[in-house]
Structures are given as C-alpha cells and as structure tokens.
Design a protein that fits this description.
By secondary structure, the protein is of the alpha/beta class. It has a single domain, classed as P-loop containing nucleotide triphosphate hydrolases (Rossmann fold, 3-Layer(aba) Sandwich). The chain is built from 5 helices and 7 strands, in the order ββαββαβαβαβα. The longest helix has 17 residues. It is globular and about 40 Å long. The two termini are about 20 Å apart. About 30% of the residues are buried. The mean pLDDT is about 90.
C-alpha cells in the first residue's frame, strides 16, 4: 500500500462524537511513551502529522486521521481512518481522569462498528509489562481483533530484542492458545513500515468485498 495523503480530521471526547463510520478504521494504542506518534508519522510519511511530545499522556481524546491510499496489489484507491487513542498507562493523571479515559477507550472499542483492527504497541526495549497483558487480555475477553507492534527496535541490540519478544510471547502462552500476528518496527529506520501497510491493505480488501 502507498499512502498518498494523510491529514488530521478531528479529536473526539466520546465515540458518539466520532466521524461517521463509513470506511475501514484502524486504532493505535499502547502505554505512555511507547512511540505511538513516531510510528504513525512513519507509516504516513509525515513527520508532523501526529504531535510528538516528551510528556507521556499527551493524547487525551480519540484522534481521527483521514488516510488516502492506493493498493500496490490491486492499484485501487481507498480511504480509511487511522485512529490515535490515549495510552493505557495514563501517565501522571488523577484517578478520575484515568477512569474517564478508560471508559472512553472501552466505549470506542466496543461500539465502533467499522473498527477493523487494533494495533497494540509494545516497547521492544523492555521485558514484558503486566499492564500490557492486562489490556491484551481485555481485548481477548471482548473478542476484538488486534495485532502486536513492537516499537523502538533500533534502540536495542538484536540479541536483547529477540529475547524480549520471546519473553513476551512466552508470557502470552500462559493464558492464550493462539498467538496474535506481530510486527517489529523502528520509526527511525522505517523498519516494519511495508509489513504494517500491507496488512492494512489486505484488511481493506476484505472490507470492500463484504
């Protein structure tokens, strides 16, 4: 897939304020400071699309971006939404704020009918974190489709990177019979870009054929 245009559309405080669900939609979420904005900008070829901040928890609303793309497989054009969700680490926020974000995210994930896939971002530099598994287990309980995206692969030595990923899936196997598809990415080196976009391309094709 080749993205020809990506532009910010709207930030919504609740799912009922989101744009009309008239096209396939892909959500990106992860712990605070996981590199979500950098990944989105890398995928969309626009370093200024999603605002990158050194302050964790900057994303507080449901952010929709309109994406225009052309399939490299069929040469067909299709428009879709990329959605930037608040992190589930919540950074240094009040308990009330965390509850509001949690409800907003859960409502969106449950009620958004055109949500095709949830990209769950995991920082590849770290060993498995329980907060990631808590969120992933929720997705499994809710029977929502998701894939794992390991970020910041360039910031770790190959051996340590491989070890962290193995530890992550070893932990998942304790409670999951089948493991999800995953991608290894680096916003700096543009690693994983084609793989993620090809995955979205295939999902878009299936959506159009419905």
């Amino acid at each position: 897939m080749q993205i020809t245009k990506a532009s910010y559309l709207i930030s919504s405080p609740s799912v009922d304020k989101c744009p009309k669900p008239d096209r396939p939609e892909y959500a990106f979420i992860g712990r605070s400071n996981v590199g979500k904005s950098s990944l989105i900008n890398m995928l969309c070829n626009n370093s200024k699309l999603a605002k990158i901040s050194n302050t964790p928890g900057k994303t507080q609303l449901i952010n929709h971006y309109t994406i225009e793309s052309t399939s490299t497989k069929s040469n067909k054009k299709i428009n879709w939404y990329l959605v930037d969700l608040p992190g589930y680490g919540y950074a240094k926020r009040s308990q009330q704020q965390r509850k509001q974000w949690s409800k907003m995210i859960e409502d969106y994930l449950h009620k958004r009918k055109t949500l095709i896939n949830i990209f769950v971002l995991i920082d590849a530099r770290h060993e498995p974190q329980q907060i990631d598994f808590d969120f992933i287990n929720d997705l499994g309980e809710w029977q929502l489709p998701f894939t794992i995206v390991f970020t910041k692969a360039d910031k770790e030595k190959p051996g340590a990177l491989e070890r962290n990923i193995k530890l992550f899936f070893d932990k998942m196997r304790e409670s999951w019979q089948f493991l999800p598809q995953y991608f290894i990415t680096s916003a700096i080196k543009k690693q994983g870009k084609e793989e993620v976009l090809d995955f979205i391309d295939d999902c878009n094709k299936a959506f159009v054929q419905q």
